[in-house]
Design brief:
Pfam families: DinB (PF05163). The chain is mainly α. The protein has five helices and three strands; from the N terminus they run H-H-E-H-H-E-E-H.
């Protein structure tokens, strides 16, 4: 009987989602960087950058035990990329850093707690693996879905996510 580790499962899921996310990010039309479908929505370039910057947050879940949103000395993402090339370069760099952090971790470390706070207020306290899946992967997938709606509204062909897209040959 073959059993795989928690770490191996997360890496496999991450690799799958990173490949899909990169395909979506490759289609972001920077000539519409300020586009927002609703006044409460993020701008296109801001949303794309947020998806990429979440990779650094996932790395934090693996490498640290906590993060306080009020900590002014905590690392902050760089400026919003101004081109597709900048966006994809950051995506590739952050993806590689996250994969390396996960490869250097193990099942036991992934069961340790990660706590997200705002000062004394605890916003989240979960095992690192659960934080990666819930606040990491699921959060990114949610925003990637939003981004595909922006693409559709801008008449940019949407790549297949979990199968074919209506914009691909043989799609729905």
């Amino acid at each position: 009987m073959h059993t795989s580790s928690l770490q191996q499962n997360i890496l496999a899921e991450l690799d799958h989602e990173l490949a899909i996310t990169r395909k979506v990010l490759e289609r972001v039309p920077y000539e519409h960087a300020d586009y927002q479908p609703h006044p409460k929505s993020m701008k296109l370039a801001t949303l794309a950058a947020h998806i990429v910057n979440l990779l650094a947050f996932k790395t934090l879940f693996v490498q640290a035990d906590s993060r306080d949103f009020l900590d002014q000395s905590a690392p902050k993402p760089g400026p919003t990329p101004t081109s597709s090339q900048e966006l994809l370069e950051r995506f590739d760099a952050y993806s590689a850093t996250l994969r390396k952090a996960l490869q250097e971790s193990d099942d036991e470390k992934l069961t340790h707690s990660f706590q997200l706070t705002r000062g004394e207020q605890v916003l989240m306290d979960r095992p690192k693996a659960a934080a990666l899946r819930i606040m990491g992967l699921n959060h990114s997938i949610h925003h990637r879905g939003q981004l595909t709606v922006y693409l559709r509204l801008l008449d940019v062909p949407v790549p297949g996510i979990y199968g074919h897209s209506a914009d691909e040959p043989g799609g729905f």
